[in-house]
Design brief:
There is one protein chain. Helix content is 1%, strand content 38%. It is elongated and about 65 Å long. 36% of the residues are buried. The mean pLDDT is 91.
């Protein structure tokens, strides 16, 4: 323990389940509650060992299909199971994620969503990474792209009306709300709505023959110039296509899927792709 910086505080998110994770001094305990009501843990400097109350209490092992995004909680050769006991079988292991906290925040001041007696209002609705109905009237969410690059970056933001992911923790990103509209999903953030946009910096360079086109023209020359952004009016809705684990999805705008495009280490935008296999996986995490 000596020498650990203790600068990586986090709460566990149990993937697709409304569960808070605690530590009782000897082992982990699970209860039905918002994940932010669980205990605050720390990740070691090597981003493998779990620290609680100044002691190592286990370690993380990456899920083989979602490296550095989905984990198992391990102690020696055993895994924490879905029931909260220890098991030697990875098939029975609990799948968890990390919701990083800001090291400068006072944990007692975190605005935690009131415990919900009905976190899922309709079994057919998509759910957040922490098991809350994305269309819940009391639901507020951060957007989390599963890139596997780093646990501590990826905050969603608005730069010149374009969606970007920055170098801060994702839980410090913009807050989103979702609703059903005509069988599709409308996504808002504050007084703006997620849409397909063509930024002014791009519009002036459009080929002459594309000036009369729009995001739905499917023109091979300009269709990929459009990306996810924000508009003041609700213009576009999306389909959240389930892919991967139950809380994961790809975004489909009716013509193209969307992929995170990393421009530099602390800045990424999105781009349209034609094949679902090339699309990025996303999740929402409630706040």
């Amino acid at each position: 323990m000596d020498g650990e910086a203790l600068d990586r505080p986090f709460h566990f998110v149990v993937t697709g389940r409304y569960i808070a994770v605690h530590y009782d001094g000897q082992t982990f305990a699970l209860d039905s509650n918002h994940h932010l009501r669980g205990d605050l843990f720390y990740l070691s400097d090597d981003e493998e060992k779990i620290i609680y109350n100044g002691a190592y209490i286990g370690h993380l092992k990456s899920h083989p299909d979602y490296r550095d995004d989905i984990f198992y909680i391990c102690r020696e050769a055993q895994y924490l199971s879905q029931s909260g006991s220890w098991t030697a079988s990875i098939a029975d292991a609990l799948k968890v994620e990390i919701n990083p906290m800001n090291i400068f925040d006072d944990p007692s001041n975190i605005n935690i969503l009131t415990s919900l007696s009905d976190p899922v209002i309709n079994d057919h609705n998509p759910i957040s990474a922490d098991g809350i109905d994305l269309y819940h009237p009391n639901g507020y969410f951060c957007l989390y792209p599963l890139t596997g690059d780093c646990l501590w970056t990826g905050d969603a933001g608005d730069f010149k009306s374009e969606l970007f992911f920055g170098g801060d923790i994702y839980s410090n990103g913009q807050i989103f709300r979702l609703s059903v509209n005509g069988g599709k999903t409308r996504i808002s953030s504050g007084d703006k709505f997620l849409s397909i946009t063509l930024g002014p910096d791009k519009a002036e360079y459009l080929p002459e023959e594309c000036r009369e086109h729009n995001a739905w023209s499917k023109c091979p020359k300009c269709a990929h110039w459009y990306s996810l952004g924000f508009q003041s009016e609700p213009q576009d809705c999306f389909t959240l296509i389930p892919r991967g684990l139950p809380s994961m999805f790809v975004l489909y705008d009716g013509a193209y899927y969307h992929r995170v495009s990393v421009l530099k280490s602390s800045y990424a935008t999105t781009e349209r792709v034609e094949r679902i296999e090339d699309a990025s996986l996303f999740q929402f995490v409630s706040v």
